[in-house]
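Entry 12.
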Amino acid sequence: MVRDVFDPKSLSTLVGSMGIGHVRYPTAGSSAHAEAQPFYVNSPYGINGNLINTPSLKQFLDADAHRHINTDSDSELLLNIFANNLQKTGKFRINEEDIFTAIGDLMRQCKGAYACVAMLAGFGIIGFRDPNGIRPIGMGKRKSSSGTGYDYLFASESVVADASGFTQWDDVKAGEAIIITRNSFIRRQLVSTETFAPDIFEYVYFARPDSVLDGVSVYRSRMAMGENLAVEVQRILKEKNIIVDVVIPVPDTSRVAALELAQRLGLPYREGFVKNRYVGRTFIMPGQQMRKKNVRKKLNAMALEFASKNVLIVDDSIVRGTTSKEIIQMAKDVGAKMVIVASCAPPIRYSNVYGIDMPSRTELVAHERSEDEIARAIGADVIIFQTLPDLIDSVKKWNPNGLNRFDCSVFDGIYVTGHVGEGYLNHLEKLRSDNAKIKQANLGLGPPPVENGTNGVNSVDGTNGTNGVSGHTNGGTVRQSPYHEIVQLPEVSDGCSGPLNGADETVGLHNSWSLLDKEKNQLIVS
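Predicted 3D structure (tokens):
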């Protein structure tokens, strides 16, 4: 998407020394265009993560700071907290100390997970990370094309820096902020790290295998997942007296682990599924029907690898179970005799509140189900899950001194930040449920089916785009669905809550380090 929008012609029109971009789908609030990032106050701003104390922050901004919030996005709340903290300095020209103070206060006010990049027009680029370091963010630099000085880049994964020729990758530490101006580079630890606990699901699924997160190669961690999973698979197959003929991965994330598992067990490894690269991730697609429909568009099973065989299918994780159920059925349709599923992750039984767009607990296939019940729900003959201690070991072993704990809340229900109670989880699930209905109506799919439950390209500071409510009206939109039910979409207004959040379309695209000389009414460009 970025490549298609920012072609050489578009890039040639950009001037200045700074830029910020965001293509991540929202995991809180709705998917309306108004919540597309970056957000603007007087400067662009982007966030990867979720806050867990949004009601109290919204109350503070409304009653005390007198700041109007245009959307339901917690990212806009965080931006306004930052802007309000800067405003409290009372200065017309702020400096680095003011910014560090504002971010430090923000970290004490905002609870949750956030990896943030901000741009203060005419001043510099800022990157900071929450005190628990749950979401990833790092920085790289390269020699400037002018021959003097360096170019700097913030990104959620090191692979972004590699692809752009940036070297000396360094993770932003938990509770740390970095300010880069045209003439200076300053980093500072603003709050003590309460419990450094990066999200382990980044290593399981989200990150690219050629990335390095917090000193750990994602590729090596997935190899270790396959190695540890092989021990569990061997134990269970022996218990059940099952002989496997072939190991087949679900492309792409599980390939590394599946290959290592096959080698450890001495089994043939085959690519039995061919992936259609023009279909997006079904994991984040809105609505059960769309996910189910797109699995078969996304993957095609080759009969010659399945026919009359006991097949061990390796997947990175099982969320709703929608994809797994379709994949298993595809394998059986082309002649598989028995389908055993091995997951590189433990059963996902709890909601994610830190920036991953996971469904409500009742929609998770593992919620309140035993492993045998999960197998029946997705149509597998046998299902085998990685144990949580083995998953943690797969990552921790590559950086034993730097990583002592991970956020494993989707597996164990323990939220490292605290302050996550049943009331908050119910509130979050209601938001996500309502949001799913909006997405479905917007896509013309009608209401989501009522069931008992079944289951991110990272960029500069996040991942994929969003499906927003099309058009900007003052009275809302009514659309006829294929089920002949009238669906009322929420009102989406122009102006402050539009796609650019009230900013002029050129804001953030043109930054030439300019100052306005008010006395002479001249624009000074350096």
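Annotation: The mean pLDDT is 79. The longest helix spans residues 218-240.
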